[in-house]
C-alpha cells in the first residue's frame, strides 16, 4: 500500500439533492426539537475519542496527556520513564472512560515510547503507520460484515499530536519524513514541546520557521485548509493555523500562585503556569482538541481518511488499472466461465467505444 | 477487559502493541471541557441539515394531503387524485422547511390509487417495491468504492402513516395484508383518519378492536422508545392512545377570540388542536417533537440492516469464519465481477456478429439492385439504338426521294426549256416565212 496517497478533493458536507422548493411554515411545528432528541441519544450512547502522541522520549508526551485530561492517564509510571530504551518501537494504548456533566467519553491514548531514539531511525514511522492502518482495517472489516453490530466500536486514531523538540532552529529531517507520511493518513497537530526552554521571541521565530518548513514540504496539518466548509470556518481555522505549532508546557503538579492553585512547573527562577496564556499555549491546544474541534476531528477521520483507506484497500483487491470506478454487483446467473478480458467497467463509455473501434 | 493482543499487519514488520489496561472510570481533577461535545455534534448536524421521509398509505380521499398540510403548518402543492387509477403508484415530493436554524428536507410519499381498484390483490406491491428501491439505492451507495455517504440525500422511508378508514367496526382485510407486508420494512404508525365521523364511545371500542386485531395477526407497529428516562414517560402515556384518531384541516375558524384550525359543521366546530376533540396534537408530538430522531435511527439500524443482510446473502456473500482468509467479500466481488465481465463480452460478441451479418445482407441487397440497374441501362441503350437506326433509315429514304424529285424537276425543266426553244424557233421560222412571202 502506497503510504503517500493523496487526500481527495474536499466535498462540502451540505446534502446534495434534487431541487426542492422551499416551503413557508405558518406557525410553530416543532422541528427544532430534533436537536434535543439528537443530544439525548448522543449522550446516552457516549462518545469515543482516540488520540496518539508521537515524539522522542523526554519531550513530555505522557505528562501532556495527563495535563490535557486532568487525570492520571497512565496507571503506573508513564511508559518510557525509567525503562531502558526498547529495541523496537512499542506502542502502548490505554483506554479510560471519563465523564463530565453527564457526557461520557471513552478515551484511548496511544503512546509511542522509543520513537526516534535509535541510532538508525530509518523507517521508524512504519509501526506508527501500521498501527493507524490496522485500526482502519479493523473498522472496515466490521463494516463489511453481513450481520453488523449496531454501533461499530471506533478505535481509529482521530488525532495525532506530534511533539517537535525545541531546538529553536527548524524541523529536522526525521520530523519532516514522519509528518509527510502521517498527514496523509491521520489528522496531525504539531506542537513545540517543552516550550519553557524558549523565550517568547525564540518561540515566534521557531514557529515561523516551522510553518515555512511545512509549507515547503506540502505538509497539511490539522485544520486542513481544504476542508473548511464556509467562511466562518475559514476565519476561525485561519486563526488557529496562524498559531500552529502551539508552544506547550505540560505538568501534573499543582502549586500555589497568588492564592490560586494552578498546574505548573516550579523552577528556581519562577513558576511556569501551564494554563496561563502569557506563559504557554497549552490552553489553545486543549481548546482545539477538546472544546471546539473534537467532533470535527472525528468527522474528518471518518469521512476523509477512512474513506481514503477504504478506496485504496478495495482498489487493491480488484487490481483496477485506472482510478476508482464502482463495481456493479448485478446478480447474473453463473454462465460458462469466460476468460476475463481487459478490465472494462460499464461506466466509462468512452473507454468502451475506443476498445470496440480497435477490435472492429 | 479490552485486549488488543499482538497484531498482524500486512507489511510484516515487527512491533508489539501493548495490551490495553482495563477499561475503567477515570476521575477528573478539574474541568476538561468535553461536555461541549453534544453541542459540537448538534452544530455539525445543523449545518448539514436533516432528512425526513414520510410515507402515507391510505385510500383516495381519506385526507392524507390535508393531514400533511396540517402537521407541518404549510400548504404543499398537490392536486387531489381521481378514483380512476388503474393501479397503485407512489408519488414522492420533496420540500425544504426551515424552522429557526434547523433545515429539514421533508419528502412526502403518497400512495395514489390505493384501494380504488376492483381487484386489490397487488395493491401492496408498488409500496413494498418503492421502499425496497430506496434501501437498494442506499446500499449501492454504501458498496461503492468511492462513495460520499455524508453527502448522500437519504430517501429511505423513516415513518409510514397508515390511514385507517373510520368504519367503526374493524380493520379491513386490505389493511391487514398491507400492514403485514410493510411491518418488517418500515416503522408503521397507524392512525384513524377523519375521526370526526366517529362518536366518542364508538371510538374507544374501535381503537381496542384495531389494536387487538393487529396483535393477533402479528403486525409489528412502531413502538415508541421507553428506554430513556426523558422520553419514557411521555412515550408510554401516548402509546396507550394508539391508533391516533386525527382530524386534519387547513382552514381557520374563529373560536373565542382566536383563530384556530378547525372544521365547521352545522352542529358544531371540530378543533384540530383540541385534545378532547381528536389526537392530532399527540400525533404531532410523537412524530415530530419527540421521536423523529428515533424513527430515523430505527430505519437505519433495524430495517435497513435487515434489508442489507437479506440482499447480501441473496447475492451469495457470506461472513467469514475465523479460519478462512479475511476479505472474502472482496473475493466474491472479484468472482462476480469476472462473471459479469464475461457476460458483457459475450453480449458484445453477439452484437458484433449480428452487425456483421446485417452488413452482409445489406451488401447483397445493394448488389442486386446494382445488377438490375445495369440491366435496365442495357435495355434502354438497345432500344435507343434501334430507334436511332430506324430514324436513319427513314432519313435515307427521304433523301432518296428528295434526290429523285430533284432529278425529275431538273429533267422537267430541261424539257420545258427545250420545248420553249423549239417553240421560239418555230415562231421565228413562221415569221421568216411570212416575211418571205411578203417579198
From TrEMBL, chain A:
UniProt superkingdom: Eukaryota
Keyword Cytoplasm: yes
Start and end residues of each stretch annotated as Disordered: 1-23, 333-360
One GO term (biological process): cell division
UniProt KW keywords: Cell cycle, Cell division, Cytoplasm, Cytoskeleton, GTP-binding, Nucleotide-binding
Sequence ranges of Low complexity compositional bias: 7-17
GO cellular component terms attached to this protein's record: midbody; perinuclear region of cytoplasm; septin complex; sperm annulus; spindle
TM stretches of this protein: none
Compartment(s): Cytoplasm, Cytoskeleton
Stated role: Filament-forming cytoskeletal GTPase.
Protein family per UniProt: Belongs to the TRAFAC class TrmE-Era-EngA-EngB-Septin-like GTPase superfamily. Septin GTPase family.
Oligomer and partners: Septins polymerize into heterooligomeric protein complexes that form filaments.
Protein name: Septin
Originating gene: SEPTIN12
Automatic annotation (TrEMBL), chain B:
Record field: compositional bias (Low complexity): 411-426
Family annotation (SUPFAM superfamilies): P-loop containing nucleoside triphosphate hydrolases
Domain Septin-type G: 48-314
Keyword flag Nucleotide-binding: yes
Main location: other
Cell location: Cell projection; Cytoplasm, Cytoskeleton
Annotated Gene Ontology cellular component terms: cell projection; septin complex; stress fiber
UniProt keyword list: Cell projection, Cytoplasm, Cytoskeleton, GTP-binding, Nucleotide-binding
Renumbered residue ranges of the record's region Disordered: 408-439
Residues forming coiled coils: none
PROSITE patterns on file: G_SEPTIN
Subunit relationships: Septins polymerize into heterooligomeric protein complexes that form filaments.
Function field: Filament-forming cytoskeletal GTPase.
Protein name (Swiss-Prot/TrEMBL): Septin
Organism, scientific name: Panthera leo
The encoding gene: SEPTIN11
Amino acid at each position: 500500500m502506497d503510504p503517500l496517497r493523496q487526500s481527495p478533493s474536499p466535498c462540502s458536507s451540505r446534502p446534495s439533492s434534487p431541487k426542492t422548493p422551499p416551503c413557508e411554515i405558518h406557525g410553530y411545528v416543532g422541528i427544532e426539537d430534533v436537536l434535543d432528541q439528537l443530544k439525548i441519544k448522543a449522550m446516552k450512547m457516549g462518545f469515543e475519542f482516540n488520540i496518539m502522541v508521537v515524539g522522542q522520549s523526554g519531550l513530555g508526551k505522557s505528562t501532556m496527556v495527563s495535563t490535557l485530561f486532568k487525570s492520571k492517564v497512565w496507571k503506573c509510571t508513564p511508559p518510557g520513564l525509567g525503562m531502558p530504551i526498547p529495541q523496537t518501537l512499542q506502542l502502548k494504548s490505554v483506554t479510560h472512560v471519563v465523564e463530565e456533566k453527564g457526557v461520557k467519553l471513552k478515551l484511548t491514548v496511544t503512546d509511542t515510547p522509543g520513537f526516534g531514539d535509535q541510532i538508525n531511525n530509518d523507517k521508524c514511522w512504519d509501526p506508527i503507520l501500521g498501527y493507524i492502518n490496522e485500526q482502519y482495517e479493523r473498522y472496515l472489516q466490521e463494516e463489511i460484515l453481513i450481520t453488523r453490530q449496531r454501533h461499530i466500536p471506533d478505535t481509529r486514531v482521530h488525532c495525532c499530536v506530534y511533539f517537535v523538540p525545541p531546538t529553536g532552529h527548524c524541523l529536522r529531517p526525521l520530523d519532516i519524513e514522519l509528518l509527510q507520511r502521517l498527514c496523509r493518513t491521520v489528522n496531525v497537530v504539531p506542537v513545540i514541546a517543552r516550550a519553557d526552554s524558549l523565550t517568547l521571541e525564540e518561540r515566534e521565530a521557531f514557529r515561523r520557521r516551522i510553518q515555512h518548513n511545512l509549507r515547503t514540504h506540502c505538509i497539511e496539518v490539522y485544520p486542513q485548509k481544504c476542508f473548511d466548509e464556509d467562511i466562518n470556518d475559514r476565519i476561525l481555522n485561519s486563526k488557529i493555523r496562524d498559531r500552529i505549532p502551539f508552544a506547550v508546557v505540560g505538568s501534573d503538579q499543582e502549586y500555589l500562585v497568588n492564592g490560586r492553585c494552578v498546574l505548573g512547573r516550579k523552577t528556581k527562577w519562577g513558576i511556569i503556569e501551564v494554563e496561563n496564556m502569557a506563559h504557554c499555549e497549552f490552553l489553545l491546544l486543549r481548546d482545539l482538541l477538546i472544546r471546539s474541534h473534537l467532533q470535527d476531528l472525528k468527522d474528518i477521520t471518518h469521512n476523509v481518511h477512512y474513506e481514503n483507506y477504504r478506496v485504496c484497500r478495495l482498489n487493491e483487491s480488484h487490481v483496477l488499472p485506472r482510478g476508482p470506478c464502482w463495481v456493479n454487483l448485478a446478480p447474473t446467473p453463473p454462465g460458462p466461465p469466460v476468460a476475463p478480458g481487459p478490465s472494462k467497467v460499464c461506466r466509462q463509455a468512452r473507454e468502451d467505444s475506443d476498445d470496440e473501434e480497435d477490435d472492429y | 477487559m479490552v485486549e488488543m493482543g499482538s497484531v498482524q499487519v500486512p507489511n510484516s514488520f515487527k512491533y508489539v502493541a501493548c495490551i490495553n489496561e482495563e477499561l475503567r472510570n477515570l476521575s477528573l481533577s478539574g474541568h476538561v471541557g468535553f461536555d461541549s461535545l453534544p453541542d459540537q455534534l448538534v452544530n455539525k448536524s445543523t449545518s448539514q441539515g436533516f432528512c425526513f421521509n414520510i410515507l402515507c398509505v391510505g385510500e383516495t380521499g381519506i385526507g392524507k394531503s390535508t393531514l400533511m398540510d396540517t402537521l407541518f403548518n404549510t400548504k404543499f402543492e398537490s392536486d387531489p387524485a381521481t378514483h380512476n387509477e388503474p393501479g397503485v403508484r407512489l408519488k414522492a415530493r420533496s420540500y425544504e422547511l426551515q424552522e429557526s436554524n434547523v433545515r429539514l428536507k421533508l419528502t412526502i410519499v403518497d400512495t395514489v390509487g390505493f384501494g380504488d381498484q376492483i381487484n386489490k390483490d397487488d395493491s401492496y406491491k408498488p409500496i413494498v417495491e418503492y421502499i425496497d428501491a430506496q434501501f437498494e439505492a442506499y446500499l449501492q451507495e454504501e458498496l461503492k468504492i468511492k462513495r460520499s455517504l455524508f453527502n448522500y440525500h437519504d430517501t429511505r422511508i423513516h415513518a409510514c402513516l397508515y390511514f385507517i378508514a373510520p368504519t367503526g367496526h374493524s380493520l379491513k382485510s386490505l389493511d391487514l395484508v398491507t400492514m403485514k407486508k410493510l411491518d418488517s420494512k418500515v416503522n408503521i404508525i397507524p392512525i384513524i383518519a377523519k375521526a370526526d365521523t366517529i362518536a366518542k364511545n364508538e371510538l374507544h371500542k374501535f381503537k381496542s378492536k384495531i389494536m387487538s386485531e393487529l396483535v393477533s395477526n402479528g403486525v409489528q407497529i412502531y413502538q415508541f422508545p421507553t428506554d430513556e428516562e426523558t422520553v419514557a414517560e411521555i412515550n408510554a402515556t401516548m402509546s396507550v392512545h394508539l391508533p391516533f384518531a386525527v382530524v386534519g384541516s387547513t382552514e381557520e375558524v374563529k373560536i373565542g377570540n382566536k383563530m384556530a384550525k378547525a372544521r365547521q359543521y352545522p352542529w358544531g366546530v371540530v378543533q384540530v388542536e383540541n385534545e378532547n376533540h381528536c389526537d392530532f396534537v399527540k400525533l404531532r408530538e410523537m412524530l415530530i417533537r419527540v421521536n423523529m430522531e428515533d424513527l430515523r435511527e430505527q430505519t437505519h439500524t433495524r430495517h435497513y440492516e435487515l434489508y442489507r443482510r437479506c440482499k447480501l446473502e441473496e447475492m451469495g456473500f457470506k461472513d467469514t469464519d475465523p479460519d478462512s482468509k479475511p476479505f472474502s467479500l472482496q473475493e466474491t466481488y472479484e468472482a462476480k465481477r469476472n462473471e459479469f465481465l464475461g457476460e458483457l463480452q459475450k453480449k458484445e460478441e453477439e452484437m458484433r456478429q449480428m452487425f456483421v451479418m446485417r452488413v452482409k445482407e445489406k451488401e447483397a441487397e445493394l448488389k442486386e439492385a446494382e445488377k438490375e440497374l445495369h440491366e435496365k441501362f442495357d435495355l434502354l441503350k438497345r432500344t435507343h439504338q434501334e430507334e436511332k437506326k430506324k430514324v436513319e433509315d427513314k432519313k435515307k429514304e427521304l433523301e432518296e426521294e428528295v434526290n429523285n424529285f430533284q432529278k425529275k424537276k431538273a429533267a422537267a425543266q430541261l424539257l420545258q426549256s427545250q420545248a420553249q426553244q423549239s417553240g421560239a424557233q418555230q415562231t421565228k421560222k413562221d415569221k421568216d416565212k411570212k416575211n418571205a412571202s411578203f417579198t
